[in-house]
What we know:
Elements: H1 6-20, H2 25-94, H3 97-102, H4 123-128, H5 132-138, H6 147-154
Amino acid sequence: MIDLGIEKMMVIGAVALIVIGPEKLPRVARTVGTLLGKAQRYVADVKAEVNRSMDLEELKKMKDTVESAARDVETSIHSGMTNVQIELNQATSLESPAMSELSEPPSDPFAIYPEYRHPKKKWRIKQGATPNWYKARNGIRTKALSGAARVARYRPHKFN
Length: 160
């Protein structure tokens, strides 16, 4: 890149002052500054896009490796499960008839669990147990109003 030191900047400024003139120099300097700023932003955007594309490629590679590892684990688990299933089938076929009667599952699968009972929370009764004078004092509504009834109740009355 071009090496611009203090001395070279002073020479460029002196030549620009002589060639352009003191009246147009501020406008030209402002234009050059905005152009340089746009160029720097463009270069920064290009660098960021290149970095994003490199990161995206790395993530794709990482995704492929993770997917292949997951496939390997899935195949190993599947093969292990088939082996266990084959061994269980062989073991049950070699089992004696007396043994099969002892290990027979119950006819009702839910017989070992107790029946569900609702906890019987009575929150409605608790709400009704609060005295009306307490509700009125603290601004708790005791009756539900529809939208139209609420508008009619709180609408200012016209006095003729």
